[in-house]
Amino acid sequence: MNSKSKFKTLVILDLETSGLVYDEPKITELAIIAVHISTLDEMKSDEELPRVLNKLVKFFDPRKTIRSKATELSNLDNHMLKNYASFNHQTVIAIEHFLNDFQKLLCFVAHNGNRFDFPIFFNEIQTALRTNDSTSINQIDSSLISIACVDSINFFREIYRLISDENILDKKHIDNINASSDLSLSNVVSINRRKYVDIPIKSNLARQLPSMKLLKIYERELNRIPILTYHRAEDDCLMLLAILKRYLPDWLQWIDNNHRLLSDFTFLPSSTTKTTKFLSKKNVNCKRPFKF
């Protein structure tokens, strides 16, 4: 299965920060969990997480006031982090060395990464290398910015949109579909839930999709409350990995077509600028039934 994807290692990334992305936040906690795709491929269906996981977890003094809302979510404050170094050039080197052990190609995965983790991570790397004492070091010397990135929230938006539309088709006869609607007869391969439907992505959904918060997706997919703690970076990585493992074949196909490089995230979203959502395709194309 993994041979069908050009990526060999998934690198789950999660950040806790000093504030919202619009405040030019600094990283307070970073978690990276790397796992070979072949390891996920070989797991039994009833296994939630693989035994072999490689982790890098670090805490940082942000050198700026942590907003109260950020403290409420992450349970981290300035006093707790006062004896730690800030994210710096040595941090970049440590992350590079950690990732060098894994089979290439690598792909960073973060939930809401396009609007949060990836631009903040890139900005911290850029700042660390720019302020390094060595004049021979500059931004392009970091191999991290050439690693592919995908945002899992976009994947789940497409998955749940597809599931929602399939359920609607299950409840209607094919002759009730209006020929002028977005779902024409030519788009329908089968109305059976275990078959495939090619559904256009609509910019304005006619119906409300379920919550895309990581915790809510975990509860729906695993059908239980997690024992992990939401908004602790390592635990968020583990929750995301457990969810994605259930969709592995479709997930691997999707990331091949929807990844970007970390170097693409050269700016932080502002409160007055709407970030364009990256979608490389107009349609959701399923090559196999999803695993529920």
TrEMBL record:
Keywords annotated in UniProt: Exonuclease, Hydrolase, Magnesium, Metal-binding, Nuclease
Keyword Transcription recorded = no
One Pfam family of this protein, by short name? RNase_T
Gene Ontology biological-process annotations: DNA catabolic process
The Gene Ontology CC terms held by the record are:
cytoplasm
For the Exonuclease domain, which residue ranges apply? 9-253
Q: Which cofactor does it need?
A: Mg(2+)
Instruction: Give the GO molecular function terms.
Output: 3'-5'-DNA exonuclease activity; metal ion binding; nucleic acid binding
Q: Which Gene3D superfamilies match?
A: Ribonuclease H-like superfamily/Ribonuclease H (3.30.420.10)
Family statement drawn from the similarity comment of this UniProt entry: Belongs to the exonuclease superfamily. TREX family.
What is the protein name stated in its UniProt record? Answer: Exonuclease domain-containing protein
Give the species.
Answer: Rotaria sordida
